[in-house]
Amino acid sequence: MLSTLVFGALGVAGVAGAPLLPTEVGGTPTQGSRCLLTQGTDPRAGPRPLPRAEEAAGQEPTKTPQGAPAVVHAVADIALPGRAVRFDYQTQDLRTGRLYISHMNDAHVLVFDTRTRQVVGSVSGTPGVTGVWVVPELKKLYASVTGRRYVAVIDVDNLAVRATPGPIGFPDGIAYAPEAKRVFVSDESGGGELVIDGVTDRVVARIPIGGEAGNTKYDPGSGCILVAVQTLNQIVAIDPRSAKVVGRYAPEGADHPHGMYVDAPNRLLFVANQGNATVEVLDLKSVQVVSIVKVGEDPDVLAFDPGWQRLYVGTETGGLWVYRVAERRLVSQGVLDLPHAHTVSVDTSTHLVYLPLASVEGRPILRLLRGVQP
After folding, report:
1. How many CA atoms lie within 13 A of 355 on its CB side?
2. Cα–Cα distance between 216 and 371 in angstroms, integer?
3. Facing residues of 152 across strands?
4. pLDDT score of 146 more than 70
5. Average pLDDT over residues 41-59
């Protein structure tokens, strides 16, 4: 989620002096399976094309009808502290019930207790915070602090910042590979993927990916870190242990891919394309595009309820879009017309949907939506 102002200041090359080649500087020995998505890295052949499957061939993106009262409805609006300005990513620790919300333009990470429905803390001094990702096994929260060009490593017990690995031009999406105990951070200024040792908090590698990175996700089904390279219209696969790109894939219809969600049990990857306002479904088994739908302008964060097979798509200017996954395709269930509803999360145990809104009657709120069982 790139701020135009900061992008202009940093330029495409990222932080001056930051190495663009993988640079090992030590770290915890890694274990676990190697990444299995290993096609498309031969520079002579180019990336592995992901064509539309036969059932999706010729399928034109279509807009969803307005209104989604049959699948979600509002149950509460909870006032949030801070100014009525932009929010960004969210991450939830289901073991503690804490939801961490980046209040990007207010320089805070808010801590919301989903059980008591109260704000129970905040982390200040995080200007331009974008991505957040909690790792319960490490008792750490990672936050991309764009205003200071580093990643804040936060102790979840006392909310103290324990380390600030970097530099990184414009840190955004964050993912954790548990077998390797490494954290991967996308750089939307084009400086490559930053790799942090989850135990020592030290930078252990910088991985060139050839363009600006959107979101970063871990796929436990393949053992890979997946990165949306939005300026190349590619998805790259990184082996967490070697910290190298081992696969490159070019989905048909991709246009500035940014947001992603991995449905690992069903081997599906949902990708939000900001360039043409679509969401694609990539089948990671057959390596094909099996569905594509039209959404609102600037689709960003994706949230998925696996129990109910429901996908929520947050968009910058076009509301919250809701889909059901049926036979590996997206079926429209409606759209809620909400301004700047670009960040969304879902509690997979309660099916509650959390939607921070920058300004409702001049104040920031957290809107809680309850999903209706299919």
Report:
1. 33
2. 27
3. 143
4. yes
5. 86
Question: Is residue 33 assigned to a domain?
Answer: no
Q: Are strands 108-113 and 278-283 parallel, antiparallel or unpaired?
A: unpaired
Tell me whether residue 47 is in a domain: no
167-222, pLDDT tens digit by residue? Answer: 999 999 999 999 999 999 999 999 999 999 999 999 999 999 999 999 999 999 99
Say if strands 171-177 and 72-79 run parallel, antiparallel, or are unpaired. unpaired
Q: What's 95's domain CATH number?
A: 2.130.10.10
The DSSP symbol for 245 reads: E
Return the percent helix, strand and coil in the chain, to nearest 5. Answer: 5, 50, 50
> What pTM was estimated for this model as a whole?
0.90
Q: Are 128 and 171 in contact (CB under 8 A)?
A: no
Helix spans in the chain (H)? 4-10
Is the C-alpha dihedral spanning 330, 66, 344, 310 positive or negative?
negative
Q: Residue 292's closest CA among 51, 9, 18, 34?
A: 51
Two tokens at 82? Answer: 């801070």
Total of domains in the chain: 1
How far, in Å, CA of 145 to CA of 166, rounded? Answer: 10
User: Does residue 136 lie within any of the structural domains?
Assistant: yes
Residue type at 283?
D
Residue whose entry in the numeric block shows the structure tokens 């990222």? 14
Q: Is residue 65 over pLDDT 60?
A: no
Count of CB atoms situated within 10 Å of the CB of 81: 12
Residue 56 lies in a domain: no
